[in-house]
Amino acid sequence: MKSRIIFNGMNRHASPATAQPGDCSSVVNLRKQSGHLIPVGTPKYLYNTQEKDRRLLYVHTCYDGEHHITANDYALYYEVNIDRDSEKITPVEKELFTLNGSTALSVQSIGNTLIVICAEHTYYLLYKEGEYIFLGEQPDFPEISFSAYTRYTDAYIVPEHTFSETYNNPTYLKTEETNFYNGAYYDAFFQLQEQAWKRRYFIQPILIRYALTLYDGSRIFSSTPVMLSQANPIQPSQLRIRIKNSNNICTGTYEGQIIAENFIVKYFIHSLNLENWKDIVKSIDFFVTPEATIFETGETLQGMDFKIERTQENGNTVFYVTGDISFLDRNEIKKQYMQSSLFYKITSIEDWSNLKVGEWYDFYSDIRPDMLVHEEVLSPDNTTLLSTGAQVSYVLNKRLHQANLSRKMFPGFPLIMQTTGRTNAEPAEAYICTYLKTERGESMVVWSGTTDYFYNQLSPFISYPDSNAYLMEIVVKSASGLYRKRIELTPSEYENRADYLDDSFVAAPLEVDSAAGSSALTIPSPSNDVYTQDNILRVSKYENPFVFPAEQTYSVSNGAITGIASITTALSEGQFGEFPLYLFTEEGIWALQSGSGEVCYSNQHQLSREPISREYPIIPLEEAILFATPKGLSILQGATTQQLLAFDELPYEDNSKLQDYQLSSNILQATCDTTPLSDFIQGCIIAYNPIEKELLFCQPRLGYTVVLHLPSMYMYRTTQVYTSYLYDATHLLGQDKQGNIFDLQKEIRNNTAQIVLLTRPITLQSESYQRWRELSLRVSSSGKKTILSLWGGNDAENKFVTVGQLSNSGKIPGKLTLHITGPAYKYYRIFFSGDVMPDFHLWAADTLAIPLDLNSRLY
Asked: Is 0.85 topped by the overall pTM?
């Protein structure tokens, strides 16, 4: 009986007794190509890292070549530059920045910006003019303080007025008189206000803050609002006019004035270090709130408190009409400022090169304060103040995606940004503790620092950029004493912020702590200020990895996000179908549906409830995604998942006979190791070779790589072992433990290769003895030494004996035949190994066997 056996690759899903002819126990260094088995080539060597502990993390494609980025436990490096046309490799070997104890989990890029993601931090570098500029995690926040400076004193002339009746030694005025002064104050208020606004000056308190505007118009780092006001915060603050008096008989008032002081804003530069960010930060934009509405137009003034002031001047009795605005409901005005939801852009600094630290500058603006409502509104995003890292990152459609986040709470704004004084500056050391009640319990964040310019005038408006804050403690130590203040904060209604506003609307000095000694300032440590959001995905703006809008933050399931993937081939430019992104979580797989406009993803759909562990690989392909679980390897296409390969391997046959052959140690390990796939793939490194359509699963500790040819599901092993892969849409690079980097998509096929093929037990007729008389391998090779051996046995799971063996050292023209004389066996196994040339081809085995029934002679 003649039979042809086609080699199926490694397949251990059936028991040894029921394995299909052609299933193999081991195949080493033999790839299936066009139906033939050929030896794998040797990947092209590229270079060696300067230090072997550096791991290749990323290839950054820039205008001047491909930059290979490596890292070790200490730092990140620009290792080599490869010219894309000539492929010339130029060593650079430059340290980019130290990691300070962090581990670079991944590196991404958008344009010339390199993004390094660590578990607790995200760092940025900008490639410009042949150099990487380290930007750090965030720009250094410019530290700017503000002060109100009275620039102009304006007056409204109150004409002479004759009382409706004379008053003898008066102590009060009747309604007819107070109505006149009420009207005068009312007219003065609007006239003086209008004149101030024409000058672009302010008269009432304002809230002011600033933010950094980036190259695309988005903003980060909104500063804390501070209130600027004058000594008399509400202007005009009072009326005082001399009364016509003769022998204590009062008949009217002389001409008088109602005064309003106009102020401008001055700002002081404490620190300004944006040199490295000058290509990212376009301007420092300033924003203010409109002045509070004291009176409504057309309102009838009532309730102004007028009194008769009697005094002595030069020995004469003099009377004055006085009035103040204490009748105004300060709580109502306070409420207006506390509920100020809109800050309007009033001016910008686009060139800060001439600004000097330690200098005051005038604040210039061409905008009338009453026309602010027509200007651009600040949309503060206080999450830009947080330090954020991620376990999972991905770039799709020029947007950075980060998931499974770690957040460190903002320590608070520096003290000097919350002061509004301009005189009597002195050096000081300070700290600010802010207390928060969060869903994680009580937290405390601490800002601490020193300044040479402490102005002991605290803004009447104090805030922290988190509505969970409820208490702030400020402590300052200077040569003049120790100052302390505790402030209760109230959540803002319109912003993620907690505020305090002093009833006076006026800056006030911190109070001296008389009980404090002269000991050094002891700065508390923060508590519970780091937290994780393992089920949160945040997505950056388009072509802007620095800004993650709140509307692009997604909560997916309740389990941790363990992976992100998309298909690698777009259906069209920038289009990846209805479900462009897939999230793998501990509660299953979710597909995010494409949104429109500024919304990246409009809906999320759960496709599978099978937990996806971080230890198992996720592999994006051209038109699908592969992922592994303890059960097996599955494919995800559109909204459908299907298992490709089950990890249900059964106990193996006995391969101890391989010890009888002179196999090298690495070949023997790759041939004999019986680690189940479910264990092997867990925690392995993985990559996809799009040229060969092969998946590579490597376990460096086991000394071999499992390779799966996807079109045929042919599986084999290779002795090529790497400690890491770098796999993206255009690269497949491997790095070994010596730091050598190889291009796995470019193989050199001019060397010999060691190969092994060992089938599983073969039975051509179930439960029958067979006497094989001839075994012919359909093989072609130009030379080198090979061994063909046939084993026989009657128990598929126990040891086999050698039935026949053939060694060959010459050319094999197309067939290698082993003639067998010996007894019959129920099972046979084919073993073939040797050193072969690149032209080696193996495609089948032909057998000639005589089946025997149980009553036939076996010998």
From this structure: yes
